[in-house]
Design brief:
disordered N terminus; 30% helix; 9 strands; 9-stranded mixed beta sheet; globular; alpha+beta; ASHA1/2-like_C
């Protein structure tokens, strides 16, 4: 991919560090009401159409297992905060492959704000290794784009092709707060 092609990719995210770990911050506006967007983020049947498979208890202090389609991520999580339809905080732990060391837990937080008939979604994932924050940025954006497609009645993207487009652009983003 050339620099010119990289410049044409719409980037939704910002990258930074906090407490020595990577942070991906993504915002987007969806042409749907806050209740519909909330349901798309919390109902297992709807999550299975755009994000992945969930089992367990998707309620406050509930524990769950999940597998995300786009990234292949598998792990467990807990619903730490749930204030329908505006705020959700999850903690997640990836299930390591045999012989690999587990990453530290991640926090995935979402805020939904009505804007007339539309809704602004802010998603922040925290806790990844700083040297992998660009890859996580591309991955989180793919999830947000799959959510947008789901809300518009479409399907998921070709995640490998989309990652190949997004990752070079994310690698050029500054990582604010990067510690030396």
């Amino acid at each position: 991919m050339t620099d010119e092609q990289t410049a044409d990719v719409r980037i939704l995210g910002e990258l930074r560090t906090a407490s020595g770990a990577g942070v991906v911050h993504i915002e987007d506006r969806f042409d749907t009401g806050v209740d519909d967007l909330w349901t798309a983020l919390t109902d297992p049947a709807r999550l299975a159409r755009w994000l992945g498979e969930f089992d367990g208890e998707l309620r406050l202090h509930g524990d769950f297992g999940a597998r995300f389609f786009a990234s292949g991520w598998e792990g467990t999580g807990r619903v730490e905060e749930c204030e329908a339809p505006n705020h959700l905080l999850l903690s997640t732990v990836e299930t390591p492959e045999p012989g690999e060391q587990a990453e530290p837990p991640h926090a995935i937080e979402a805020w939904l704000t009505p804007e007339g008939a539309a809704t602004r979604l802010v998603v922040e994932e925290r806790g990844m290794p700083v040297d992998q924050v660009a890859a996580y940025g591309a991955g989180v954006q793919i999830h947000v784009e799959d959510l947008a497609s789901h809300l518009a009645g479409g399907g998921r993207c070709d995640s490998q092709a989309r990652f190949a487009e997004l990752f070079p652009a994310y690698r050029t983003l500054p990582v604010s707060g990067r510690e030396a």
